[in-house]
Design a protein that fits this description.
Elements (H helix, E strand, L loop, with lengths): L8 H9 L18 H9 L4 H32 L17 H7 L1 H9 L1 H12 L5 H10 L7 H5 L16 H28 L25
Length: about 220
């Protein structure tokens, strides 16, 4: 239930049958791809019945989280007067990059791949972020190893040892990329803040809780 309105189970079922992969480790870690569901079914065939049943229950909980984020994002986009683009196949999860899973967590990464509304909201929040010049310069100065020139890297220059200014990409050239990265990071933090607040109005039925919720019997969250 999202802010007093029931969400149909068919939306979770559609996502599960449309390409949502089973969590691979623990309760909340899951990389997804177009072939994920088929791979998972092949893997599941070799699992004992009890483990298979638990995996399927956790898979449903995981998919529920993706659907809930989409519902919340749609509501927020409507409140902001934003119109998400039409999705050709909204019941499928697009391929999710492993770096996104590492940076965002599997549920949020998959929700962004599944939900045009979530992607639009994230872009909107990112565009609202102001990055101070001092922050860009500070990042550049503190991460010198990221701005070695190709020639310096070839020579194995130690960025924190005896170096020449010529060994580094000039600040003026690096500035735009750094500002973009900092704005993206700030936008993601804003997205997580929005999600935490929005979930205050979500009530889960039994069997659809967060997969990492220790209150349900299938909880198993390893790192």
């Amino acid at each position: 239930m999202v802010w007093g309105e029931m969400i149909a189970k068919r939306k979770v079922d559609a996502l599960l049958h449309g390409g949502c992969a089973t969590p691979q480790r623990g309760a909340g870690n899951c990389a997804t791809s177009h072939d994920g569901a088929a791979d998972d079914r092949h893997h599941a065939a070799g699992l004992p019945a009890e483990r298979l049943a638990r995996a399927e229950r956790q898979r449903r909980r995981w998919a529920t989280q993706v659907v809930v984020i989409d519902e919340l994002a749609q509501r927020t986009c409507a409140e902001r007067g934003l119109k998400p683009p039409a999705e050709v196949s909204p019941d499928r999860v697009l391929a999710v990059a492993e770096t996104d899973v590492a940076d965002l967590g599997s549920i949020v990464a998959a929700a962004l791949a599944h939900s045009p509304a979530a992607r639009l909201l994230l872009a909107e929040l990112e565009g609202e972020q102001e990055v101070a010049e001092a922050a860009v310069r500070d990042y550049y100065d503190r991460n010198r190893d990221r701005f070695l020139t190709a020639e310096a890297l070839r020579r194995g220059v130690d960025p924190f040892g005896r170096v020449s200014s010529e060994d580094f990409v000039p600040y003026e050239q690096a500035r735009e990329g750094v500002a973009r990265e900092l704005r993206q990071a700030a936008g993601r933090r804003a997205f997580f803040g929005w999600l935490d607040q929005s979930k205050a109005g979500v009530v889960y039925t039994a069997g659809h809780e967060h997969p990492g919720d220790p209150a349900h019997p299938d909880h198993e969250h390893r790192h």
